[in-house]
Amino acid sequence: xxxxxITDINGIQVGQAENQEAGTGCTVILCKEGAxxxxxxxxxxxxxRETDLLNPINMVEKIHGVMxxxxxxxxxxxxxxxxxxxxxxxxxxxxxxxxxxxVCGASLFDLSVGDPHIRPxxxxxxxxxxxxxxxxxxxxxxxxxxGASVGKLLGFDKAMKSGIGTYGVQVEDLKVACxxxxxACGNVVDYKTNEPLAGVYQSELNTLITYEDLLAQxxxxxxxxxxxxxxxxxxxxxxxxxxxxxxxAGIAHNGYARAIRPVHTMSDGDTIFLLSTNEVEAxxxxxxxxxxxxxxxxxxxxxxxxxxxxxxxxxxxx
Length: 318
Fold this sequence. Notes:
Blueprint: E1 2-3, E2 12-19, E3 24-41, E4 48-49, E5 62-69, H1 78-88, E6 93-94, E7 99-100, E8 103-107, H2 122-131, E9 149-150, E10 160-161, E11 164-171, E12 174-181, E13 187-189, E14 196-198, E15 201-202, E16 207-208, H3 211-217, E17 231-238, H4 242-259, E18 260-261, E19 271-280, H5 284-304
Parallel strand pairs: 5-8, 17-19
Antiparallel strand pairs: 1-11, 2-3, 3-5, 3-19, 4-8, 6-7, 9-10, 11-12, 12-17, 13-14, 13-18, 15-16
Helix pairs in contact: 1-2, 4-5
């Protein structure tokens, strides 16, 4: 097994755009030739676009892009920029009179940092698509992770800075990779060592409140802090149908559960998309197991690459 970039999968472009001062941005995953897709939404407060279309009982078999963005529900507008870019490149679902690009999306809440009145829009989404032609991907405070934060169980004043991460692996001919913007209510841990990485922060001690100590305080909370959501897109070159993509997207949530504690709360909108470029034979279980690994590692990378910003301390400065 070797590490790969997500853009090492044929036909996949990944681009980002952001406004650092405003504390928001977007990340696009494009497949101009189309990719079979599935989605699984586990959080209780999602902001999503075109997820019903991915139900295996529905007509469209392939999509052409996934837009991950900040800006809460406002940020869903960034997907319109991807539609414009794809139309200009003659990509989309052929309706005879024109081609309609199919772009799914999910947004996280980052309005608590920077300027809440500036959000990813059509223009920023289009710029992310232009950036995808450069074949570079920056982790941390970039794209959809620009304003991301974690550890809001006891309020935003105890949160830490997070960001966006990526990771991918190849086993023989099979490739599985992902990008993940981490904006969780809970703490993030290294899933292999259980080392706490970022979360509910005690400024007076310059350390984290452990998950076990948080559990002891949950009974005092009548409502968890709003404004979270971890969003990701997994891409594979395995041959999969829509039902298999949907199932594997669900399996991939195990990666969230390994690295984020707690996860899938009512104040999170946790969502995972899965794209298949249909090149090599592989079992759904094989892809699901690897998807879980790359998701958990991408979450770790998002935190390790984050920089302190907007008054929030990052792992690097603990």
